[in-house]
Amino acid sequence: IDKLTAGLKDKLKVDAAPFVPASLSAANNDNSDGKKIKHKAPQKRHTNRGKNNKPKDAKPQQNNDRGDKSTPDNAGVGKEGNAKNKGKHKGKKDFGKSKSSKPRNNEKQNTATELKENSKDKQQNDGPGNKEKQGKPSDNKRQSQGKDKGNTNKGQTKAQKKKQNNNTRVDIRDEKQVDDATSKQPQKQEKHKKTAKPNKKSVASSSSAPTSKQSIPPNQPQTTNDLNYAAGRPLTVVHIAEKPSIGQAIAVGLGGGGNKSYGKSLPVHEFVDNSPFPKAPKASKVTHVVSSVAGHVFNVDFPSEFQSWDTVDPAELFHAPVVKKLCKGSVVKHLQEITKGADFMVLWMDCDREGENINFEVLECCMHLMAGSGSKFDRVYRAHFSAINPSDIMKAYNALGKPDKFQSLSVDARQELDLKVGVAFSRFQTRYFQGRYGDLDSAVLSYGPCQTPTLGFCVQRHLEMETFKPEPYWLLDLGIMNSGTMCRAVWDSGRSFNRNKVDSYIATCRDANPASVAKVISVITKDKNQGRPVPLNTVALLKACSKALGIGPHSALQMAERLYLSGYLSYPRTESTRYPKSFDIASTLQDQLQDNRWGSYVRDLLRDGVNVAKGGVDMGDHPPITPCRHARAGELTGDMARVYDLVTRHFIASVSHDAKWRSTTVKISIEELGEKGEFTIRGKTLISPGFLAIMLHKQYGDEREDVPFGEEEEEEKDLPEFKEGDMYGLFFSGSKKSGNKVSVAPTGKFCTLDIKEKMTTPPTYLTESELISRMEKHGIGTDASISTHIENIIKRYYVELIPGRKLKPTKLGLVLAQGYHLIDNSLVLPTIRSDIEGQCNNIAKGLAERDDVVRKAIDLFSAKFNYFVDNISKMDVLFGSSFAKLQDVGKPFTRCGFTRRYLQFITGPPPRLYNKTTETVYVLPIGGEIKQWTGRNCPVEGCNFELCLYSVGAPPRTFPLCPNCFNNPKQEWGKLPGEDTTTTPGDEEDENKERNIRRMAGKNMIRECPHPDKMPLIEEMTVSPDPESNGVLILDPHLGPKWRLVSTREPTIVHMPKSVEKVTVLNAKDEVLGCRMMSIEFKEGESPLEGGKKKYTSCFANDEMLQGLVRIHHGDERMKASSRGGRGRGRGGGRGGRGGGRGRGRGRR
Question: What's the pLDDT score for residue 88?
Fold first, then answer.
């Protein structure tokens, strides 16, 4: 086995033969000796889908050290959700992991027969490094497991393989690619067996499954396709960026601006390049097609059967399946149209883990449509770039690497954990406490694995302040008068909490005979360098913006991203604090020579020579944040200009000279006090400003917490001349034992010795900068997500931002955090989340298996959730002492249709009605004004609730509202309010989920009629279809004297003529349209009817006379509530128009 392993490692480095899955290698089961390879008989599987799709008599599969399945189709695919995912989209993954920490066992088995005859020769080529890797004690065990597991699965038929794929997560690609790989790979394998020696110049090929550890990392330039591809014929290269603005920059950088562009939301840029494509240099012509997506293509979510807050126990969510749903169907259609028939695909997503995840989402959609057969992933490349100026674009284009599956899997793991843990805890505690208390400060009591520890830091500091007990302390204060300047000396003993002891020191000096003197025992003057700052990474940028500019972390990162998309800054999400060797510092500085703010400083710096930045670490992801092009004064405005100014000055300072200070330390002693009589005077003056000449803000990055008393930074001041041996007579004041008065000595040199009383001071609330430091220290969040977690606890009203950019916990935040501590403090402490973040980092590095990490974390949090539910009464005690119970708040508003008791109206948030008798809560819509409508009951059979009025928009449109029917709509009434009928089925299901979540959490933003159009209450008032929407026109329930019709779905108001005195909706319906007839009564003498008739019956939809008299007004969709969602598609803010959009940080720019 050791010989086979040695040969395998050498083969993977130098051999370009494609990998053949175990299920396909059964067709080529002749080994090099001409003998048949024996396979185990395939095991029977159940025809019906069981929980795990395993036969009863099947033995559990053994996993290797990384938990990989021997079937390559499952490589990199999560197994959560397999049981209930019915395999809606089946297809084989033709791409895989680009690198691995250890060889996969199934690859060892598949290539064993080929390596057998050549293992002796290959073993001679292995260097000492390979022998060291073979010497790991666990290798033999791993290899034996891989051998057994490979034999078990080699005999699987295609049908069995297909059934196994039904358990993988949703994959929208079809099976055509599988057939292509099946038909091509065996022939390639046979051909390779006849090769005498491998070609050492070729590179290991990425194939239908992830390869073993490669000699070239994915982010390094490499070629995985045949360089003779498309020789002598034209080819097409499709470039896909993460955002349209980046796509446009790529088109300009590659095509020079002479592009053919079309499309609106996702523009497409097309041009022909006469220069050869680096991966196919023999092609006759290269056509480049550049376009983009708009962030993530898929959204991780629960299936529809787990969406209900009423019927699904939150505990079930931990082991519920997760699926990837399309965020927008039009994006997939767009991708498939531009990649169909393409020869190569180059992915230009942001170079971080989220970007790698989007890479594989794009490949899920359209890679199977590329031209050619065999492994299409070999012709997929990934561009690694840090800026979008033309030079960086061309540099990335000429050094294409491969997508990194491991980083994508780490994102999948984190998304699944955050979804399951966050939704389960949030659903339970939101429903539990909103059903018991009426004055909560937040509509959703959310829990987040990162959000809650972030809150915990703020609450911990608050508790430290509350429990702090100030104590008095005393110290000796020595003042030295020298050359007319009074210098304060610091007592080296620090401070004393015993007043009598300090008084005794004064008494000793006062009673001394001869009189006490203060003597200068040493004067030390030396020059010190203040080191220039290390280069700027994301965390340092967020802290600097908060501390120096007063810009919050979330806004600061947004500004930096906008500057990056505009080409002014490099990529703002980076962990590196050292410039890579390839970074051109001089060229970046030269771009700033013309600036009138720092141009002259840069000119001098280039003349004298730049300095390599001190310290820092190059993480290999992106270089530190630097300016990419010059922005003239006034070219940028507002916070964007301030952030650009800070980044540019920091970059120049990081390559400048150190600042030089001349520091003077004077040691003074009073002999009578011994060790307690030592004092120090410090001062410093600036000799050479160095980088301080360009930086406007001093040391805005690091916070020094818990600085020992007396070790404060020395003050910048000029000291008078002190000489060793100088003597200063003591004068006393401030002591209760001394009545002497201070008098000025004739020599001008004297000193005073006093006692100062001070109080210990409590800590202050955490600043944003301090909180970021703590989050970074404890591993809470990533450099890109830290700002989001801070923003979330502010939006949830768990903390409030007070002057000084400090975060003060609210009453709700304190109760939640203390409740977690009472039940299970690990829910709010950073330890567990830090460990999980570390495991996700291991996934990204290929050191841990995604499924193992997710499974262990889910089991852990599931157990904690059950314990949390069993002990929720402990947190309830805290809520009861801080908030008012529902039965004690609100006012009688409307009657319940079941008990005929009045329901209490609680203004919220969220607004709701509460039945004290049954303890039932009825959530009301947000976005408008709710009014009473006394005396009218709901016509729905079995309901009989007293109705309310709901007004929204400007001018307001008013609709009837039944609290019971709003919370319990029936399916036959049609689409629920807020559904976008123009979306694809995938979007529709996702938006229904959004609506359900916000309905149960009181976050459903309704700017239209709150009931479906086919609800009996609305049908009774419908007089016409609305030709401008899918809604209907109903009579405004306010009735007269100003009669009007309002649209249920659009801000449209139809004003009846002023001559109308009364309008009544009749029971009779139009036979064709099915809407109600109206009885209209005109005022005396103002009737437009023949003969002055006052009354007549009309069907508004086909009454041309009445339509000619009305006035139509298109109002505003704006709601009275201020909490609108973020940008998005559909009718409203956020994703799907539901308000408060659930973003991922990656939208279209």
Answer: 40
CA of 964: how far to CAs of 480, 900, 918, 921, 977, in Å? 81, 13, 14, 10, 15
DSSP 227-263: TTTTTTSEEEEEEEESSHHHHHHHHHHHHTT--EEE-
For residues 830 and 453, is the Cβ–Cβ distance under 8 A? yes
Decide: 193 and 111 in contact? Cβ < 8 Å: no
| Distance from C-alpha of 1144 to C-alpha of 299, rounded to nearest angstrom | 9
Give the tokens for residue 717.
């001041």
Mean confidence (pLDDT) of the chain: 76
Say what the pLDDT of residue 20 is: 33
Element (H, E) at 505: helix 499-510
Task: Pick from 205-209, 871-875, 898-902, 1097-1101 the range whose average pLDDT is largest.
Answer: 871-875
Integer Cα distance of 284 and 780 in angstroms: 52
- Amino acid 1146: pLDDT: 44
Of 152-166, 276-290, 658-672, 1065-1079, which range is least confident? 152-166
Burial grade of 723 (CB within 10 A; 0-12, 13-18, 19 or more): exposed
| Residue 75 pLDDT | 37
Cα 68 from chain centroid (whole Å) = 28
Of the listed 437, 447, 564, 571, which one is catalytic? 571
Sheet with strand 285-292: strands edge to edge: 260-262, 268-273, 285-292, 234-241, 344-348, 380-382
Q: How far is 559 from 1097, CA to CA, in rounded Å?
A: 61
CA-CA distance, 998 to 989, in Å (whole number)? 14
- pLDDT-above-90 percentage for the chain: 36
Q: Could you give the CA distance from residue 819 to residue 835 in angstroms, rounded to a whole number?
A: 23
Residue type, 169: R
Distance from CA of residue 708 to its chain's centroid?
Answer: 37
Given the DSSP bridges, would you call strands 380-382 and 344-348 parallel, antiparallel or unpaired?
Answer: parallel
Residue 518's alpha-carbon distances to 665, 674, 722, 757, 869, in angstroms, are: 16, 12, 13, 22, 69
* Arithmetic mean of pLDDT, 990-1015: 63
pLDDT category of residue 1104 using cuts at 50, 70 and 90: confident
CB atoms under 10 Å from CB of 308, counted, come to 11
Task: Judge whether 1108 and 950 are in contact, CB under 8 Å.
Answer: no
Strands 268-273 and 1022-1025 turn out to be unpaired
571 is catalytic: yes
Q: By the 8 A CB rule, do 647 and 696 touch?
A: no
Looking only at the bridges linking them, the beta strands covering 799-802 and 678-688 are: unpaired
